[in-house]
Amino acid sequence: MNVRNKLRNSLIRKIQMLSTDKLTELSKELNKIESKFKSKEETLKLAGSWSDLSEDLFSDLTEDLHTRRSNDRQIL
Questions:
Q1: How far apart are CA 31 and CA 41, in angstroms?
Q2: pLDDT in tens, 36-50
């Protein structure tokens, strides 16, 4: 049996022994973890969004970023 199957079987045995309250708690925690992965996947989908910008526009958007953010904070 490989490591993955051993781990899966061990987790299944532990889960089978949990009370309903603990199962509910575990389910909530798993949902949180799952949503973090989904969020990361959604963010990574944007990774290529800027690939077709011209060098000049990209530089303009990124080079003075810190200065522009500082100026925005001063305005607020």
A1: 15
A2: 777 766 766 666 766
